[in-house]
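Mods, move this if it's the wrong board.
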Amino acid sequence: MNLEVLRAKLALELSPPRFEHSLRVMAFAQKLARHYQVREEPVAIAALLHDVAREKDGQQLLSLAQTYGLSIDPIEKKAPILLHGKVGAEILRREWAVTDPSILEAVDVHVTGAPQMGLISELTLIADFAEPSRSFYGAKIARELAFIHRTTALQYIFTQKIRYILDAGCLLHPLTIEARNHLLLQGSSEENGKDKIFP
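Not the wrong board. Structure tokens:
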């Protein structure tokens, strides 16, 4: 997988604003990868391609999910935009020859999160939420936490996502709740309650 080839291909798939967002997510994810001493290339690829299916409409996402044999729960059926991660992962696997399971997982779960995510998934999700053009207060806090304590940053992000979704009166995907609960349970065994800084 050549990053520049993938970047050029993605530019043809997305609108300029969405493509620029993807580049910013990639750049921020690369900084996180260096900070956490993770191999940079798979993180960069996952972050770059995370929104490959984001601009497909709801009917397209439902149709592709059915074609690919993906499970569609009632919440995804009602709010098909939630499918763009798992559909995107399948597009990358089937049409873009992306085979690295950690990259495909990161694209799959970046929308909802999931318990026990891999490190590349975690960094992609953080970078998507906190990339530098996100100017709202929660993104600023997440950007700072991302380089201090990764688990705390993730917990904070899921808390902000859940609050936003509830305030908006939208459907909340159970995986988002499970992801946050997993982090809370994980953090409860750590000394000094580091993961409870932002309840």
